[in-house]
């Protein structure tokens, strides 16, 4: 009886060992199959570009429109800078930073970001008119492309005319050898844009001068005090910087500057 029991136990152990080995091999095979699928190279989509001859005049027109759109998109940053309030704002903030003698404070990224968002705020009414009168009717198929371009440019031209000096506009009209315009609608946009930029630079420099005056007074007072004390080797800027920052903070300089910039476009 004991021998029979031992024989049965040995047979059972052999069956268990075989079953464990089969389960282990099955698990290894399953893991290898998953790893193979995971390591398989992903499929890369192919892009085919066909270049052929245009069979209809409409095909040529569509191609030219696409090229014109790509050109406008590539020039979009320059258009945004040169036809909006961005120039005046960024130049004035640059003057403020130099007047305070804070070198790179605020950083260039902050100056550009602040100038852009102030530009969006100031230009929002004009861009809204351009979208309402030009872009949306064109997308709805109510007007042609030429009419849409004119309707989009009209509010932007209105903004530039308000900020452009007559002397600057007359300068570029005379240099272009064009006929004397009877009204604003007769002035070319290519003549209006450089006149607008020059006017913006003049206005920005005037505002910058007004910003510089109080800080120059502080620099002169500090320099005179240091010379009278015989401390000529000590840079006056190092001593005047805290006083200039204190003055700017006490008068709420950022509030006054932003308010003055926005009001100057009204």
TrEMBL record:
The chain crosses the membrane at residues 21-44, 64-96, 108-128, 209-233, 245-265. One of its GO terms (cellular component) is plasma membrane. InterPro entries: FliP (IPR005837), T3SS_IM_P (IPR005838). It is a multi-pass membrane protein. GO terms for biological process: bacterial-type flagellum organization; protein secretion. It is found in: Cell membrane; Bacterial flagellum basal body. Its main location: membrane. Keywords: Bacterial flagellum, Bacterial flagellum biogenesis, Bacterial flagellum protein export, Cell membrane, Cell projection, Cilium, Flagellum, Membrane, Protein transport, Transmembrane, Transmembrane helix, Transport. Belongs to the FliP/MopC/SpaP family. Plays a role in the flagellum-specific transport system. This is Flagellar biosynthetic protein FliP. It comes from Selenomonas montiformis. The lineage of its organism: Bacteria, Bacillati, Bacillota, Negativicutes, Selenomonadales.
């Amino acid at each position: 009886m004991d021998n029979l029991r031992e024989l049965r136990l040995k047979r059972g152990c052999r069956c268990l060992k075989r079953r464990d080995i089969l389960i282990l091999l099955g698990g290894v095979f399953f893991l290898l199959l998953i790893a193979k699928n995971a390591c398989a190279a992903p499929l890369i989509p192919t892009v085919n570009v066909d270049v052929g001859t245009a069979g209809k005049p409409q095909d040529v027109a569509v191609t030219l429109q696409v090229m014109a759109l790509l050109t406008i998109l590539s020039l979009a940053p320059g258009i945004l800078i040169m036809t909006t309030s961005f120039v005046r704002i960024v130049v004035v903030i640059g003057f403020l930073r130099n007047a305070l003698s804070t070198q790179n404070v605020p950083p260039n990224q902050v100056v550009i970001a602040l100038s852009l968002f102030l530009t969006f705020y100031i230009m929002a009414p004009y861009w809204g008119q351009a979208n309402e009168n030009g872009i949306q009717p064109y997308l709805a198929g109510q007007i042609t492309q030429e009419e849409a371009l004119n309707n989009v440019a009209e509010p932007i031209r209105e903004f530039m005319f308000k900020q452009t000096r007559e002397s600057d506009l007359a300068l570029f009209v005379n240099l272009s050898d064009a006929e004397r315009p009877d009204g604003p609608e007769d002035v070319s946009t290519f003549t209006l844009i450089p006149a607008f930029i020059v006017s913006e630079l003049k206005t920005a420099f005037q505002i910058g001068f007004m910003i510089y005056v109080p800080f120059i007074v502080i620099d002169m007072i500090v320099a005179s005090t240091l010379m009278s004390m015989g401390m000529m080797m000590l840079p006056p800027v190092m001593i005047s910087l805290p006083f200039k920052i204190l003055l700017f903070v006490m008068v709420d300089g950022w509030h006054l500057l932003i308010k003055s910039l926005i009001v100057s476009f009204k």
